[in-house]
Amino acid sequence: MSSFSSKIGVLLAAAGSAVGLGSIWKFPYVVGENGGGAFIILYVVFSLIFGLPLVMNDFMIGRLSGKSAYGVFRTLSGTNHWQWLSWLTMVTVTLLTSFYFVVTGWCFYYLTEAAMNTFAGMDAEGLTNFFTAFGHKPLTMIGYAFVAIVLTAAVLWFDVNKGIERLSKILMPLLFLMLIVMASHMVFLDGGTTGLKFLFEPNFSKLTPKVILEAVGLSFFTLSIGLGILITYGGYMPKEEKETLHSKEKNIVNTSIQMIALVIFISLLAGMIVFPAVFAYGFSPAEGPQLTFVTLPAVFQNMFCPTLTSVSFFALMCVAAITSTISLMEVMVAFVREASEDTKRPLNRHKSVIIVGVIQLITNSLCILSMTGSVRWLTVMDKNLFDTANNLTTDILIPIGAMGTSIFTGWFIPKARYQSSPMISFLYLLTLRWIVPVVIFIIFLESMNVFQFTIITK
Ligand code: PHE
Questions:
Q1: Closest Cα partner for 11 from 46, 55, 48?
Q2: Considering only CA atoms, which residue is closest to atom 11 of ligand 1?
Q3: Which of 222, 225, 322 to mutate to test the pocket of ligand 1 (most atoms within 8 A of CB)?
Q4: Model pTM?
Q5: Which of 351, 442, 324, 428 shows the shortest CA–CA distance to 59?
Q6: C-alpha separations of 218 from 21, 179, 296 in Å
Q7: What would the pLDDT profile of 368-425 be if each residue is shown by its tens digit?
């Protein structure tokens, strides 16, 4: 039975999963597009009122059942009625991983190019052309995605306490250190305070219902909710000698709070790197997804040590991304292993890693071939597979997964199995039974354009 060896190991592995491209790439550009400070307040509030119960819930059902996303619902409910939710989780993770490795590959590509000083003297236009040219090199992209898959598989080759846990204990403090060093460099740039003001001074006139819902979505994505990741890690939590329901619950609550605090703090640090730099050199914060791949390298070229700054930044992105791909692939490996136990030929860790690695190589290559237009018929409703996988997972499948697990615990597990304190149980159940399902339902209606919100800006 796989298990982490310490509480800090669980925390760092979970935070490693959560802090990824979502915090370093997505968070800054979404904040930039949605006006800064006020959006951040919403993001933090939602991470606490929705994120906390959902994170706790994932850890808890994983811990109670000792199973991965494959066996968790079956074990806790004693029936097969919830097996669809397990399979849905697997489909979501497979799709999400199919584009996540692609972007991780970009980070590795940019890291090597930055190290070779390719960006020297390039302005924003040059970098846009560079990005576009890269978009027409499917084989290079597949090569870099392959590197990311092999590195991830190499970590998963070892049992969780030797692979994931050991690496997280090295990479997470390193990531933290790199972020702090870079942020303290950026905030002291001339003009950097405008960036900090943008980040921390709330401007509530920018808030619309659509922006509010976007903050909920970003919070789920960055906290790795709805994909069975924290369920699987919950199953690996170490058991204590004299364990009571109360001590289990306390452990889970503490780990969840610490993990969320780390994610919020690290996302803010990423903002403190990006915005002072962007404002100091007169760029716009609302550049969208290309903010980190085009705008930032252009900004770095104006700085004192352009090569070192670019290399440090992309190294930081690679570290953040790889600790997340590790968790995504581990969920698939655990799923395949557990599912294979139902057959006559149970698979061991190594075989499962190889199977999942090959699946990843195929799905990521398909995404790349479709996105670069190399194979024209690889589209879904006129959209390339990369965009389809991205939108389908973030907008539809992750919320359904979160809603499903929430309803499952809220309504279908006997309370006596997991509650020790009446106060926690009241708030927890209120959120899981009612608030989360209703809010996610509203997000759905909104994303299907059922509500035609008008944008009110003063
Ligand atoms: N939370 C990760 C990030 O911010 C993305 C992710 C989502 C990873 C879901 C695993 C599961 O990048």
A1: 55
A2: 224
A3: 222
A4: 0.89
A5: 428
A6: 11, 20, 21
A7: 998 887 777 777 777 888 888 888 887 788 888 999 999 998 888 876 666 666 666 7
